[in-house]
Amino acid sequence: MNKEERIIESAIDVFLEKGIEKSTVSEIVKKAEIAQGTFYLYFDSKLSVMPKIAEVMVVKMLNELSKNVSGETIEEEIKSVIDIIFTLTKEYKSLTTLIYAGLTQTQYVGDWEKIYAPLYHFIENLLIVRKENGETRETLNTTFTSKILFGSIESVAEQMYLYDDSSEEKANEYKEELLKFILHGI
Amino acid sequence: MNKEERIIESAIDVFLEKGIEKSTVSEIVKKAEIAQGTFYLYFDSKLSVMPKIAEVMVVKMLNELSKNVSGETIEEEIKSVIDIIFTLTKEYKSLTTLIYAGLTQTQYVGDWEKIYAPLYHFIENLLIVRKENGETRETLNTTFTSKILFGSIESVAEQMYLYDDSSEEKANEYKEELLKFILHGI
Amino acid sequence: MNKEERIIESAIDVFLEKGIEKSTVSEIVKKAEIAQGTFYLYFDSKLSVMPKIAEVMVVKMLNELSKNVSGETIEEEIKSVIDIIFTLTKEYKSLTTLIYAGLTQTQYVGDWEKIYAPLYHFIENLLIVRKENGETRETLNTTFTSKILFGSIESVAEQMYLYDDSSEEKANEYKEELLKFILHGI
Amino acid sequence: MNKEERIIESAIDVFLEKGIEKSTVSEIVKKAEIAQGTFYLYFDSKLSVMPKIAEVMVVKMLNELSKNVSGETIEEEIKSVIDIIFTLTKEYKSLTTLIYAGLTQTQYVGDWEKIYAPLYHFIENLLIVRKENGETRETLNTTFTSKILFGSIESVAEQMYLYDDSSEEKANEYKEELLKFILHGI
DNA sequence: CATGAATGAGAATTCATTCAT
DNA sequence: AATGAATGAATTCTCATTCAT
């Protein structure tokens, strides 16, 4: 692993453990086992590592999505999308929160959408294929809908895992409800 | 305005302008026109102002909700709820983001739900009245639904105002779509 | 002595001892027996103390000039001016060099003249009085001449003390030569 | 241009632009387009470039002096010396200041005279020739006088160009005055 | 209660210098 | 000879916090 990657991985660890405010460059370099000065060869400051962290996370999420989303019908496929996003949210909730917080602190809130774009695109491509296949209504705006779809699933998933520590059972009820809504919507 | 209120208002301004990380107690007291030491008579630290800020925001949001939500039928009422939440999101989006970021940094993420509780309650009370009136399905879980409802509206509204700078026209399309979904869901 | 004065005095000591480049704020505050942070309440940086040091030196030089310059005739008075400037140069040569170096480093070279202005004025006032008294030529431009006079005396004195470590005897030869020149010139 | 020359030229640029204190080896090598480590093959430190810079400047000044100083009589020759020193001062004033500052910082102030020695010698040689020719008084100490001469001209020239941004007209008045003084002195 | 000058621990940052390539 | 990434000691600078007034 090269120095830059070492810094990013270490920064993720430290940020997750201490929160952004309490994290220091000293600790990041210590964990990365590089010299203090080396950090500044790659990044300007603690917060400027954030976009790279976001990138890393989106790549991981995209990987899992493309590996796991599948289905014969649109219903099966959407069901699988919901499952994956619930799983991803569970796994990366802290990291997501972290990035979100990091971006809000640096006036890069606007970048949030840009960072998420590849994920929206993934969903949109699914929709485009299904639309060409006649499985959705003719009037469907795929760009528009990809965001609603992702946003609504994520918002419910977050509420489940981020704040609630809800049971698996409850999660399943939520998932079914969501599936109905989405299928009706498209 | 007493000193404590002056601090809170000033902290909101400074946090919004500089982000939490770059904000300092010095700047907050300067804007509040009080002495450095006075801050510590009221608060322990920069971040300990956060809950008070959240309180202030929720009170403002509740005020606007109870002042403006009304309607003869459930459809009219939900329409009005959607309108208000879109308006509130637009007005308080930065502040919401700020509080959210502040809480994530202090491991108080869990408090997010507690802070939002009064808003959920407001929605829940609407649903309870309408359910007793026979305007919803018998099986409706009002607690459960109040969160889904608030969450989904807010998630769309945020996407509109926080990341998109979307047009009013587009917002209206979104609102209609949301209204249909919610009416169907309850 | 207040904190600012303590910093200035200490800065003079440290700069003289170590040179500007090798001097550190840490050492200045240590010698001044104040806290590190206190320094930054009064000055922005190491070099920003320089103008204040210059002021201090000019005040000292003016004091000695006005205390010691005197004479019945213009010849006696100029002789006394030469003596004093030689003495001052000897005493403050390091400090002068220091300030000069400090100013060249901060693009404030132009301030050099401003700092010296009070000294030039002192000389000019002597000339004005003597001119009114008819002891100089009618066409003498006092402003102009005050600078030539000061400059030439100082230039010789510097060469004596700054680079030469010349003998007292040699210095006296120089002084006599200078006196002749100046009396002739005015 | 070989690496060492590249370093010297680059160092002059950087020192002039940023001042010695704020100049870094990194910037010097960057401007010289050589590697960081290469600097240390030729110089020990930032300040150790200073003597070489001084050498370069003195060579340039001597060149211009020997190219341009000429005259049938001693009056013409001194006039030409004054002109050249004024011109040189104008051209190299920043560089001179820089070297002077650099030397003061390294306790090599004493080297100043050594660096200037070739210039003093140039003047002294002129005086020796003229003295042998009977154009000066018999008692003239040429070594002694070469320094006074150079010093007084330079001191006035500096005051003109370094601090004053004076007009060409004023400069000419000064030059005439100086010429009279010098001719009388020798 | 209120003040604000002073503190000093600790974080950010720089930069001369090295050394494996 | 030349390179330039990496180093880490040294410094600057910040800022929460205190306390005498």
TrEMBL record, chains A, B, C, D:
Residues 24-43 bind DNA. It comes from the Bacteria. Residues 1-61 form the HTH tetR-type domain. InterPro entries: DNA-bd_HTH_TetR-type_CS, Homeodomain-like_sf, HTH-type_Tx_Regulator, HTH_TetR, Tet_transcr_reg_TetR-rel_C_sf, YvdT_C. GO terms for molecular function: DNA binding. Gene3D superfamilies: Tetracycline Repressor, domain 2 (1.10.357.10). SUPFAM superfamilies: Homeodomain-like, Tetracyclin repressor-like, C-terminal domain. PROSITE patterns: HTH_TETR_1, HTH_TETR_2. The keyword DNA-binding applies. Pfam families: TetR_C_26, TetR_N. Keywords: DNA-binding. This is AcrR family transcriptional regulator. It comes from Nosocomiicoccus ampullae.
